[in-house]
Amino acid sequence: MNHTENLTRYTANFVDELVAAGLTDVVISPGSRSTPMAMTMTEHPELSQWVIIDERSAAFFALGMAKQTKRPVAIICTSGTAAANYFPAIIEAYYSRVPLIVLTTDRPHELRDVGAPQAIGQLKLYGDYTKWFHEMALPEATEDMLAYARSKASRAVHIAREGNAGPVHLNFPFREPLIPDFSTKDLWGKRGKGSFLGKMEGRRRLDPQQLNNLCEKLSDSGKGLIVCGPQPDPNLADAIAHLARQWGVPILADPLSQLRAGKHAKDHIIEGYDAILRNETIRKQLKPDFIIRFGAMPVSKAYLFFMKEHRDVQQFVVENHTGYREPARNQTAFIDADGTALCRDLAAMVATPSADETWLDTWQQMNRIAKKHLLDQHEQEKLTEGEAIRGLMTVIRDRSTIYIGNSMAVRDLDTFFMSTTASLEVLANRGANGIDGMVSSGLGAAATGTPVTLVLGDLSFFHDMNGLLAAKHYRLNITILVINNNGGGIFSFLPQVNHQKHFEALFGTPLDIDFRQVITMYGGTYHQPTNLSDLQQVLKESYRYDGLSVVEVKTDRTENRQWHHDKWQAIENELLQTRG
């Protein structure tokens, strides 16, 4: 068997097994050394291929797609620094628990460490940020080696999605010539009835004795809190809402919790908790007896202060699989159990916490006060950043996704996203909280056919403008709301703002870029509304438009900071007055 046949059969069996294990999409960045894998992926009849030239953009595109579908997505690149450009998205995938199959191609062993071009050290290139790494053997087409290729492909998909999902990395050394022969007989080999490595993973669940022990710890606790931070499971919302009603406790629901939107009951949800907890006196008055948290730590910094000031409060953190997410460093009992099943089991228990009759009422009253001020709309001469989010939420399409950027964007969503019966999923890159790759991530989510509104700041948009090529290339439907405060607006809320000598150069970092020209270059439509009604109208129109639509809202950082502080101060004053 000659080199080309070895290469062809080995690669084809590997690719076919990825499909057998459930892979449906692959994102390819063009290059020479990746030729065997890229061409074979493109040839496979059951795979959708997305060609994204820039590797950094490609990896974030795959990340967004995997977040939206909850399924692994593969990425393929050539050797050298191409693979290094995947790193930011791999870090994000690791921390946000997103399944990626990272397939890097490499020079064969004899061309490494000898000064050959485009040859870098790719073994375990991503360090501890992958769940599994394997250096693949050189291609052979014996029965044993084809079984080897299939076993590694199947294992990669299973590891990526099992337990806490995350990226896996396989490195392929390929010798030249690199062109496969697709006329090879029985090209795809012998696929079994299922994937090569079958695996069943059951739900983790507390046994009856463990449930009794937990309920006993809470039996004398009248002031409980359920907190739900960023998490992707839409089925958790109904279970948490039911448990909260059974126990008579409030729910502090992060905007990424998937609890603020949907058909489930929301009367126990406290959307305004970030504004409520900004005052130290109020935080002391609202000390709970216990906290049960689902998902990651909430976005709200006020909630973090609340936690640090009440270190003696019993805290339970529920993880579907083993994990450690407790940045406040409080004493914590971790519960490794499926969150939905745990809520239902606890709701069915006879022994429940003895709810304080005034506890829930207090939170609900405070929430009404916060919402009254947050939703108050005095006519403004120009749009504020909070109004941009409020305007979006009045017209957002049902059964769609909001992909929210970091820094100020996610914090404004936290503040101004009120409960709705609309079916909305909220995605974000909150693993490492970076501002890079956001355009590509949003487009990856949109590539699934789901209507997506990407909301981000001007710096985040600037960081990933080349990601817009995917929208043009594949005619993807997406609305991008760019909130442009000409720089790093979040720093206006941080202590750095008091150091004016260095502020603009190091933190404000104004871009002074006309984004309209960028949008035109990539074939999109552009609008710059100046008031709330115009914003709502152009957003509605964008949802009817086929392709890329960018809506830019220009704001002033200083005015925006004052506007936010005025809102928070008004809420604080009324809360303190009400509490006496």
Automatic annotation (TrEMBL):
For this UniProt record, the keywords arranged alphabetically read as follows:
Magnesium, Manganese, Menaquinone biosynthesis, Metal-binding, Thiamine pyrophosphate, Transferase
Q: Which GO terms describe its molecular function?
A: 2-succinyl-5-enolpyruvyl-6-hydroxy-3-cyclohexene-1-carboxylic-acid synthase activity; magnesium ion binding; manganese ion binding; thiamine pyrophosphate binding
Q: Which PANTHER family does this one have?
A: 2-SUCCINYL-5-ENOLPYRUVYL-6-HYDROXY-3-CYCLOHEXENE-1-CARBOXYLATE SYNTHASE, PROTEIN PHYLLO, CHLOROPLASTIC
**Record lineage:** Bacteria, Bacillati, Bacillota, Bacilli, Bacillales
Q: Which residues form the Thiamine pyrophosphate enzyme TPP-binding domain?
A: 439-553
Which residues are listed as membrane-spanning?
A: none
- Pfam family of the protein (one): TPP_enzyme_C
**UniProt domain Thiamine pyrophosphate enzyme N-terminal TPP-binding: residue ranges:** 13-121
Q: What is its EC number?
A: 2.2.1.9
This one is known as: 2-succinyl-5-enolpyruvyl-6-hydroxy-3-cyclohexene-1-carboxylate synthase
GO biological process terms held by the UniProt record: menaquinone biosynthetic process
Catalyzed chemical reaction(s): isochorismate + 2-oxoglutarate + H(+) = 5-enolpyruvoyl-6-hydroxy-2-succinyl-cyclohex-3-ene-1-carboxylate + CO2
Named in its record, the pathway it takes part in is: Quinol/quinone metabolism; menaquinone biosynthesis; Quinol/quinone metabolism; 1,4-dihydroxy-2-naphthoate biosynthesis; 1,4-dihydroxy-2-naphthoate from chorismate: step 2/7
The scientific name of the source species is Lentibacillus cibarius
